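Weekly structure sync - notes
Attendees: PM, LS, DV (DV joined late)
Agenda: review two folding runs queued last week.

Item 1: First target. Sequence and structure tokens pasted below for the record.
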Amino acid sequence: MSDEPTRVIFLASTGRSGSTLLELLLNGLDGVWTTGELYVLPWEISENRRGCGCGKPVGECEMWSTVIARMGPDLKPGGEVSRFRDTYRIAKFFRWVDLLRALRHTPLDGVAGFAAFARENKALFSAVADSLEALEGERPRYVVDSSKLFYRLSWLSQCRGIELRVIHVVRDPRAFVHAKTREAKPGVARNWTAFRMSVRYAVENALIERIAGRMRAGYVQRVRYEDVARHPDRAIRGLCEWLGVEYRSDLPEVFRACENHGVAGNIMRHREGGIALDDRWRQDMDRRLKRLAWLVAGRTARRYGYVSSDMSDIERET
């Protein structure tokens, strides 16, 4: 067991923004191991819906079973590890008190539950690193938590004993809104959902920027999903330089064959195949909803290099 702070890479995003793909690619780098959406782990242990990225149920995975035995009741749903996660699938967006704390950067030392949150999450990251070290013979340089939610980021950013780096993963807001509205009934229901998701895109990304902007200089990077999907070698090389780890040239071809122990997240974690840009929104999304998404979230999207035309800046470059 090491007394050194655990180095954690936190993937922050609105969801449906390619964080699972990025996580799997990072997992293929030497010294980098994924945990998936770590704050869903207690629910996964309880309900076992998707299991571990290695293909086994979480309780039967050699890595996670060691962690579960060490953490004991701290990994029950409703505890500090699963704070901000209401059920397996639901993480409530509007938590007004915590939202104000994130906006104001309120020191959390005196906030009820924070001391336990810091203690239990630090213990969990350490347990993951210790378990991987025992299995692999080498301690991971970084543990990746792709929980995404800005509330968890806000609290982790104030935890002593965790060396936190943040990768802010973004995607064109129209793609995000399309992914969130595809299953809604056409008409008023879909329009309302599109408006809410457009607002969420703008607000959540702004909050991630605000929280990450208070962290140590050089400890935050922003990555666009479209860049990762179109040019994974270029995108991951840049992150390798930032993290100080070696890039492997065959990563885009072999990343799915690399052992991973991620939980929850996109179902693509358990699929096969290479990397393909998902831009179905260009053809499938109603033009009015495209305009609505850009009207609400376009100002935020322009900061990330997106343009209002259906033809992306990436396509213009190529």
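Item 2: Second target, run right after the first with the same settings.
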Amino acid sequence: MKYVERKSMIIRDSGRSSDYISPSFGFGCLYKCTYCYMRRHLPNGLTIAKNTGKILDKIFEHAFMLGPKVPNQTHDKFWTYDISCNEDFVLHAKFHNWKLIFNFFKDSGLPIFATMATKNVNYDLLEYSPLDDNGESRVRIRFSLMPQVLSDKLEPKTSKIIDRIKAINKFHKAGYDVHINYSPIIMYNNHKQDYEELFKLVNRHVSDDIKSSVKAECIFLTHNKKMHEYNVNNDVKGEDIIWKPNDQESKVSQYGSINIRYKYDKKRVYIDRFLNSHKSIIPWQEVRYIF
């Protein structure tokens, strides 16, 4: 890990997990997940921006020009910025001045909101209250979930799935807005049974009084030929699960990268199957989007 002067101050449109993607407070990841798109750009290591203040100034300038929030699936009242798109911010929080960043969203006076996905349960964040003066949360944590049998192979050394699920109640009680990120959704033998068991765990452990607020985003696996070659050459475990040429096709991503995704006709079936299982077990959970 090293500290760098972050040069790129581009704020990108999102529209799915958030309205916008902030400049990178961190770039890379200390986890070694087989499917991680960040490892295509930085196979090892992590850089942390030492010019945090400039990034926050850029977000302020951007948000100031937006005006009142237009309600959408990201949030009804606040413009949402993903501060963790190129790293696992929760995992790396000890390297960041994370309270300064959270305070910015809480105290800026603008209708803005931070969001981040994570595979890490970091209880240090519970010492902080993300509630603004009106008692509204300004920070969302999206716990990424998949069946544990997959996580064991594809997400070595990440927090156990059951621990992520059990953390939902604790983080909600602390004032965080908490969602679930079913990602990446992967098709394999017994996937239907394993995902149904996952949904049952969510149903069992999320408190009834907060279930209506714990929404979901669902993202099917995206792979990449360059990453596939890296995994094969480095004997990375689990590549046989995520590289399925007969079921996948090339597709240009939103920002121009050529990636590998499930074939369109197959994916439509997979989505319907996933949603049917999800609805049959946890009908209380709103799916914000699925793709």
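Discussion on item 2: The CA atoms of residues 40 and 169 lie 34 Å apart.
Action: LS to circulate a short write-up before next sync.
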